[in-house]
């Protein structure tokens, strides 16, 4: 089944007016006040041009938007912040969820229920007030829903607890038929399996409930070394991290920092290699554990310390304002000395790369273990995630993509067969069969046929309905 969405006509004003009469939120056509604000995404190099935008205030609004899309044979794209959007959504119905931002914490049951538009920063602010933590991402401006549907690699607690998707208790979703479903392992086991890891292929999530953990502090931060010590730091980190406990989550990043006021003065305009640390054990054990890393070279900056969990965004210190960039990632099945040498060649001091960052996250631990209620996450057993990021305006798009491609193509001899969907290029639909592997993809396609036979939810790394 193929689609030519660009051939769909514009939404007529009278059709939009009929839709607006049924929703409490906003219905916006191109040219309307607020349309440009609602179509904006985090990546300034990516532009959405939907036929109509619905900004729902309730589940009923979402159902109306989905029913409208079905009646006009239009695809649906769901947007919270737009950190990862596939395609321009031309001729589509975009559902912008940011007004659906309720957060309800059950401290006794160690769980939280969030609306579809909630950001990780909002969850962290509330859960830390009661001494609990979630499996949040590294950037606090990312939406909870999209991150979790893609798996969710928490850089703070993931190695001891697994993927964020492993700890979802329930999801409220609107499927392509306009029905609201409360999806659990008991109510609809196949859909529950597919939603957790299958990204946005199956429904519009309106709310989800997931586990919290009794963690109120971490020993965490970053060790920033001069970039000319990349080889020493990388080899030391690679030898060190496998012997650490699952309560230690770590990554390494080679960074060429821009000369921008937003970048801290010690790092501004510098070529650096950074080791990120998040340890949920005692500070004394953490200090003793990372002593070999601190001894590798004099640090330009050392921010590793005992911190409240509320401060976890400072560990990776990622940008929180929209900017122009391109990123793409792969998984590595191993990282032997030859791979280490190659990575140093590709991004080290003698390379000519203009990547802003090449990041290698060490996985393993609970990330490799199947949860009690299995899900569609495809990357268990792959020990590393490698991400390349280039930054610059859209006029430099070809060079931005080439910079990332040079890194990932160079590491292909060690690439794993499956992909982590949250680290795929936001503007290029990837082969979903290659992402999930043949057996998992076949099951996803069968479930897709049941819940979205016309492939309404296709503006993503698309799982096609089984034929």
Describe what you observe in this structure.
It comes from Tunturiibacter gelidiferens. InterPro entries: BBE, FAD-bd_PCMH, FAD-bd_PCMH-like_sf, FAD-bd_PCMH_sub1, FAD-bd_PCMH_sub2, FAD-linked_Oxidoreductase, Oxid_FAD_bind_N. The protein has 467 residues and is of the alpha+beta class. 26% of the residues lie in helices and 21% in strands. The strands form three sheets. Strands 10, 11, 12, 13, 14, 15, 16 and 17 form an eight-stranded antiparallel beta sheet that branches. Strands 5-6-9-7-8 form a five-stranded antiparallel beta sheet. The chain has a four-stranded mixed beta sheet with strand order 1-2-4-3. The longest helix is centred in the last third of the chain and has 14 residues, at 397-410. It is globular, with a radius of gyration of 22 Å. It starts with 12 loop residues before the first helix and ends in a 16-residue tail after the last helix. 50% of the residues are buried.
Characteristic terms for this protein:
467 residues, alpha+beta, Uridine Diphospho-n-acetylenolpyruvylglucosamine Reductase, domain 2, Uridine Diphospho-n-acetylenolpyruvylglucosamine Reductase, domain 3, Vanillyl-alcohol Oxidase, Chain A, domain 3, 8-stranded antiparallel sheet, 5-stranded antiparallel sheet, 26% helix, 21% strand
Return the CATH topology of the largest domain.
Vanillyl-alcohol Oxidase, Chain A, domain 3
Q: Give the mean pLDDT.
A: 95
Total separate domains: 3
Regarding quaternary structure, how should these chains be classified? single chain
Q: What summary fits the major beta sheet?
A: 8 strands, antiparallel
